[in-house]
Design brief:
Blueprint (H helix, E strand, L loop, with lengths): L7 H4 L8 H7 L5 E6 L15 E2 L7 E2 L5 H4 L5 H6 L3 E6 L8 H13 L3
Parallel strand pairs: 1-4
Antiparallel strand pairs: 2-3
């Protein structure tokens, strides 16, 4: 996908020459919230909504984020965010970008935007 993608490989810092500022900048976030839709029909595999993808050389087994070079070598700062408790994995029932307003308020706005 790197050869055909216009931006995903670049923003994931997957080039031969890594840009350390990508990881530095992203790691400065207070929270990085990833939402996987359990019945997503648009994103393949849906696990990529959590930065997980097929293990190299096949299209059946998903490589967990925390076992990937992207994470282990901290290409974009996800490991740094995880280590400070700022990397959040959410899952919602439904297809791509389908969630209720109340779910968004309860799980995103009230948790990450309104101080407790």
């Amino acid at each position: 996908y790197i050869a055909k993608s216009q931006f995903i490989g670049e923003i994931n810092n997957e080039g031969a020459e890594k840009k350390p500022e990508y990881a530095t900048n992203l790691a400065q976030l207070q929270n990085f919230v990833m939402i996987k839709h359990s019945k997503d029909t648009m994103v393949e595999p849906k696990e990529s909504e959590h930065f997980e993808f097929y293990a190299p050389g096949q299209a059946d087994v998903i490589l967990p984020l925390r076992e990937s070079p992207l994470y282990l070598e901290d290409w974009i700062g996800l490991k740094a965010l995880d280590e400070k408790g700022a990397l959040h994995f959410l899952e919602v029932e439904g297809d791509h970008l389908q969630f209720s307003r109340q779910w968004f308020i309860d799980e995103i706005i009230n948790v990450y935007f309104i101080p407790s």
